[in-house]
Amino acid sequence: MKVNARTEQLITRLRGVVWEESLVHNGSRIALMREYLRRSALWAQALDRADAWPFFDIAAAAGRGALLDEAFLDSVLDGLEGRGLRPLDPRIIRYMLDFTALPARPQDPPDPFEPLLMVHERGGSFSRAAGSIRIGVGDGVPARSPERYARLAPAEDLGPAALDALDRSWEERRAGASRRVREADQRS
Question: Would you say the C-alpha torsion 49, 93, 83, 29 has a positive or negative sign?
């Protein structure tokens, strides 16, 4: 199957992901997930699909055709088999791939899947549990209503330096919290 450059770039990036979860970049991964949820909420509103939010096939909901065929999608997923994908990952990867085939229009909301792909690139997979999206052990992002996320301001900077700064700040807060717990234990 002939695919466009966006699809080829996505496949290359997906092949580079280490799918086993790493906690090193949790601060930036949480911020990136929030940005995905915001962008996905904008698409859900634009397509009247709030019922499908937060993870849904935006390209199919847009109904503009150009979706990739199943055999091609299966071949991409087969190439990622045995690399640590979680149960939700193949479905999301299909949504990402279909989105790359969607003809862009100026009035469309921003690409929702770029920050989600970056979540994967900066530390592997994530999971859903009890109304939240789990990033690492014990960290999560509430999966509130799409209306609430659609009202959030966009992320100012998703560049590597800004994301690394978020990670440093996150680690400093975590270290401070651990220190306070140890001090409280010592006083008890």
Answer: negative
